[in-house]
Specification:
The complex is a heterodimer of chains A (247) and B (292). Chain A is an alpha/beta fold. Helices cover 34% and strands 24% of the residues of chain A. Chain A has 2 domains: 166 residues, Rossmann fold; 72 residues, no CATH class. Classes of the chains: A alpha/beta (247), B mainly alpha (292).
Chain lengths: 247, 292
């Protein structure tokens, strides 16, 4: 599998959120994307998913279909007022196998149950999703990712507003995924979590500040540079003429 | 006693062909409009049905101008106008920063004003009233075939797109992330909405067709906790309102369309208070809580 960023630029109203980013995510490894607010972390994940169109450059995916990626967005747009049971939501993880008309098969339902067991919510299988707390709901979304059985997993700030116990439980899935040879890319805000669970780090502040072994990337010097770069904002910035292929 | 009940409820349908046809039209509309309305409610598009019913008007008026009170011409015109508004609003949403509700509001207002202009130029107020308020008691065989046809198409199509449509309402980003084209299901669904409004406006009028679509669906959300049960309640309430409204209009010599919708509205008002899942009273009266 290959996930490569080739001189990628993504802007909102001409202001780049991701600026001439090139590099390659290590396959079968867990990479954290770290950086201050407004550093383009979520935008980068969305662009990998094809939910944002790049201005220039491209995302090269080899050995993995885009629709086979498991993606957990930062703000889920799930309408939790709908009358849907937890198990039904988790079983949508089998969408690839069941498709739009075929129902979820036996193996798919087994996988969904197994996933609910793993995140400790089997008792809640038939409860409506509206009855869950924020943390429980995040466990459900992780159960769906388990059900998707994806080789590439993208998580966008998965532990916002989640308590310590749930965060720890869910983080324990990361080493498991690595041991199964899956690639995990997660936007995180907690340095300790990164150091403990993610061997690789991309430090992003619209541009790549550093990318490599987490211990080498997360130095005070790099972190300061990241904050400075992200805070820098010029409303009437001149037009960029960088030819990123050289950069 | 039983005889009186028979006279009250059954004999109008036995004696008069127009009542039978009206009853069947109500059954067909209930079966298809109910589920369509429920999906509109679940997708937080409750007012979209109203907008679309206005959008249908100029097409129906154009049909009326060309061919007089001709069902095929008015239905076709209404369908074309409704689809045009849906497509233009969809394009505006896709290619500008406007949200879907704003686009629909703008285009349906354009469409409605054109419709009123056309009706006022070409006919008199009686025609306008007929167009706006319909007459389920004047449903003939051709209209019945249209309503039944739309009902069949709607139910088959809904059965086919049920899962992606529901998932798109629940979690649109996930559906896109697994490579399904959410917009496609949304478009098919909007076509069904227009189709049902066109079928309904012959029987109930453009303004009232949306009532039979929305009121039973909104009521259903108060009574049931899962989608299947909601579908059943929506269809049931719609048909019961249809049959009851017809009888009211027959016995009390009221116009049929408003009788049907008012009855559905009455069911909704009562449900607001007593319905077990979402009603006010069951929420107010709390049973003792369970052990941990």
């Amino acid at each position: 599998m290959k996930i490569e960023l080739d001189n990628l630029t993504v802007s909102y109203q001409r202001h780049p959120a991701v600026h001439h980013v090139s590099g390659r995510f290590m396959a079968g490894e867990a990479t954290a994307i770290f950086g201050p607010n407004g550093a383009g972390k979520s935008t980068l994940l969305k662009t990998i998913m094809g939910l944002c169109a790049p201005d220039s450059g491209r995302v090269r995916l080899e050995g993995v279909e885009r629709q086979a990626i498991a993606y957990l967005p930062q703000q889920s747009e799930i309408d939790r007022s709908l009358p849907v049971a937890v198990l039904d939501l988790v079983s949508t993880g089998c969408w690839q196998r069941s498709s739009w008309f075929r129902r979820v098969d036996r193996a798919g339902m087994d996988a969904a149950w197994q996933a609910l067991e793993t995140v400790g919510l089997a008792d809640f299988a038939h409860r409506p999703v509206s009855a869950l707390s924020v943390g429980q709901f995040q466990r459900v979304l992780f159960a769906r990712i388990l059900t998707q059985n994806a080789q590439l997993i993208l998580l966008d700030e998965p532990f916002n507003a989640v308590d310590a116990r749930t965060t720890e439980d869910l983080l324990e899935l990361v080493p498991r995924w690595r041991s199964e040879g899956r690639t995990v890319i997660a936007v995180l805000h907690n340095e300790e979590h990164v150091k403990q669970y993610f061997p690789q780090t991309l430090l992003l502040a619209r541009e790549v500040i550093a990318w490599g072994n987490s211990a080498e990337v997360l130095t005070d010097d790099n972190l300061h540079r990241a904050v400075d770069t992200a805070a820098h904002w010029l409303e009437r910035a001149p037009v960029c003429h960088v030819d990123g292929s050289a950069a | 006693m039983t005889l009186a009940l028979y006279d009250l409820v059954v004999s109008p349908f036995v004696e008069f062909g127009f009542m039978r046809r009206a009853l069947i039209a109500c059954l067909a509309l209930a079966l298809s409009s109910g589920p369509i309305g429920l999906f509109l409610v679940m997708r937080r598009m409750s007012l979209m049905g109203d907008a679309m019913s206005h959008a249908v008007l100029p097409g129906a008026a154009a049909g009326f101008m060309v061919a007089g009170l001709s069902l095929p011409a008015m239905s076709l015109g209404g369908f074309v106008a409704g689809v045009t508004v849906a497509v233009l609003a969809g394009l505006a949403t896709r290619f500008t920063s406007l949200k879907e509700d704003a686009s629909f509001a703008a285009f349906y207002l354009l469409s409605l004003s054109m419709g009123v202009l056309m009706v006022s130029r070409s006919g008199n107020n009686v025609d306008l009233m007929h167009l706006l308020f319909g007459s389920v008691l004047a449903v003939d065989d051709a209209a019945l075939m249209l309503v039944a046809g739309v009902c069949s198409v709607t139910l088959v199509t809904l059965a086919l797109i049920y899962r992606p449509l529901l998932l798109e309402s629940l979690d649109p980003v996930f559906l896109r992330s697994v490579g399904s084209r959410g917009g496609l299901w949304h478009t098919v669904f909007l076509l069904l909405v227009v189709l049902n409004l066109v079928a309904g406006f012959q029987a109930l009028g453009t303004l009232m067709a949306v009532g039979l679509m929305m009121l039973p669906a909104i009521t259903a959300r108060l009574w049931a906790a899962n989608v299947g049960a909601m579908l059943a309640v929506a269809c049931g309430v719609a048909f019961a309102s249809g049959a009851g409204g017809l009888l009211l209009s027959y016995h009390l010599e009221l116009p049929s369309g408003p009788s049907i919708i008012l009855l559905a509205g009455l069911v909704y008002l009562v449900s607001l208070v007593v319905a077990p899942v979402g009603g006010a009273l069951p929420r107010y009266i709390r049973a003792r809580h369970r052990q941990l």
